[in-house]
Amino acid sequence: QVKLMESGGGSVQAGGSLRLSCAASGNTYSRSCMGWFRQTPGMGREGVAMIDGDGSTTYANSVKGRFTISKDNAKNTVHLQMNNLSPEDTAMYYCASRVDLCASMWFGSFNYWGQGAQVTVSS
Questions:
Q1: Which regions in the chain score pLDDT beneath 50?
Q2: Main-chain phi, psi angles of 114, to 5 degrees
Q3: Alpha-carbon Rg of the chain, whole angstroms?
Q4: Contact in structure between 16 and 53 (CB atoms under 8 Å)
């Protein structure tokens, strides 16, 4: 069992930055794929970024060049640095863990989820 806890959400004006963090506890593994997803009311859960056990990263086209995912294996923590935010980035952001290497950035391929952190960007 893996427990994930997000922090760092909040409200910001367009063009601003926020940093989300996800602390993992329980049966964590350095090879685990970690990802960030986001969801707005009435919409499905969209993959934003993921980072593999070897540090390789994948991003959704909508956030490339603006968001950066990173991890600290010693602290079992994953971060999502979000720059140049726009109102379209407003959503509940979820941290997710997969018990294996990264495959696709599809929510169904991840096994564990955090409770979510709200990000609101005003124009």
A1: none
A2: -85, 180
A3: 13
A4: no
Nearest to 22 by CA among 48, 43, 56: 48
Task: Give dist(CA 116, CA 47) in Å, integer.
Answer: 14
Residue 26 class from Cβ within 10 Å (0-12 exposed, 13-18 middle, 19+ buried)?
A: exposed
Calpha distance 51→55 (Å, rounded): 6
Antiparallel, parallel or unpaired: β 10-13 and 117-122: parallel
CB atoms within 10 A of CB 8: 16
Beta bridge partners of 35: 50, 96
Residue 40 is predicted with a pLDDT of: 96
Query: What 8-state DSSP symbol labels residue 119?
Result: E
